[in-house]
From TrEMBL:
Homodimer. Its cofactor is NAD(+). Pfam families: Epimerase. Its EC number is 5.1.3.2. Pathway: Carbohydrate metabolism; galactose metabolism. It catalyses: UDP-alpha-D-glucose = UDP-alpha-D-galactose. GO terms for biological process: galactose metabolic process. This is UDP-glucose 4-epimerase. It comes from Maridesulfovibrio ferrireducens.
Length: 331
């Protein structure tokens, strides 16, 4: 650890999941004391290698009170969200209950225990159908699905908290998080897997698993959806910068996190084929509910205010790290 930097005590909600485990590891590598709070519903105990672990559920205020009163935390990171857009369309109660009510419970436990710094995983899904090629944080907020609305409502709650209480937060609007830690000890593992890059790699490893492309007539150059893929380590670096930012900045702040480059589903399949060294077969399926045709970030606000710049600018390099993990996943 940099000796000039203070060692912090940090609670990582959702630290057994994909982003939370990479974050716990990075915080611990920077010399901070990490405590993970997770219900292990979608996360993995094998991903809990960094810090203490408290098993609990956001929907249970007693679990949160126990966790928040167990130590004096300097800040809380919140990655415990349900994240599957199509599920949110089918099961809105679960999404509002976990992502909004659960977050309110967490904020309440933080206030009860005098913790006033919060870093929240929001999403590009808050923007809905884009009216700009590169989306800035000022783009209208019009989510297309309950998942995106849970993120938007939480951001609004955080603004109200900043106005009413001495409560400071950063919300990161993630574009498409991808890749794995370069040493491949941890990586992305959702069951069932719904994300594009893991599905491409899994279909190349297990030939019986057919890759599906959802939709071929979006208003994009090749008819498939365009996304902005950002490496998991870059995403975590921005969260590290957020803790420093919150030392001196009051209020509720939102930042986009993306690379600023748009790749269609077909572009990603081609890039993955180059990494793997063979063509990847696919078939077209109907569109999924709630998918936006194009989501590409303008992240200049994070560049300026957080002094953050992604290191993984090349999609093939991002896919390579994911492939290393998927060839031999530990969980
Ligand atoms: N997608 C696809 N096949 C898959 C998974 C995803 O065609 O097996 C498409 C999906 O429709 C979207 C893009 O790939 O256009 C990225 O989807 P993902 O679930 O990875 O992230 P999202 O953008 O939905 O957060």
């Amino acid at each position: 650890m940099d000796n000039n930097k203070k060692k912090l005590s940090l609670l990582v909600c959702g630290g057994a999941g994909y982003i939370g485990s990479h974050m716990s590891r990075m915080l611990s590598d920077h010399g901070h004391e990490v405590t993970v709070f997770d219900n292990l519903s979608t996360g993995y105990s094998k991903a809990l290698k960094w810090g203490d672990f408290i098993q609990g559920d956001l929907r249970n205020p007693d679990d949160l009170e126990k966790a928040l009163s167990s130590k004096k935390f300097d800040a809380v990171f919140h990655f415990s969200g349900l994240i599957v857009v199509s599920d949110s369309v089918k099961h809105p109660f679960q999404y509002y209950d976990n992502n909004v009510t659960g977050t309110l419970n967490l904020l309440q436990a933080m206030r009860n225990n005098g913790v006033d710094k919060f870093v929240f995983s929001s999403s590009a899904a808050v923007y809905g159908d884009p009216i700009m090629d590169l989306i800035t944080e000022n783009h209208p907020l019009a989510p297309l699905n309950p998942y995106g609305r849970t993120k938007l409502y939480t951001e609004e709650i955080l603004e109200d908290y900043a106005t009413a209480y001495d409560f400071n937060s950063v919300s990161f609007r993630y574009f498409n998080a991808a890749g794995a830690h370069p040493d491949a000890l941890i990586g992305e593992a959702h069951r069932p897997e719904t994300h594009l890059i893991p599905n491409i790699l899994l279909s190349s490893i297990d030939q019986g698993r057919k890759l599906k492309i959802y939709g071929d007539d979006y208003p994009t150059p090749d008819g498939t959806c365009v996304r902005d893929y950002i490496h998991i380590q870059d995403l975590c670096e921005a969260h590290l910068a957020a803790i420093e930012f919150l030392e001196t900045s009051q209020g509720a702040h939102s930042f986009n996190l993306g690379n600023g480059n748009g790749f269609s589903v077909l572009d990603v399949i081609k890039a993955a084929g180059d990494v793997i060294g063979r063509k990847i077969p696919y078939e077209f399926e109907p569109k999924r509910d709630g998918d936006s045709p194009r989501l590409v970030a303008d992240s200049s606000k994070a560049h300026k205010l957080l002094n953050w710049k992604p290191r993984y600018g090349d999609l093939r390099e991002i896919i390579e790290t994911a492939y290393r993990w998927h060839k031999n996943p530990a969980f």
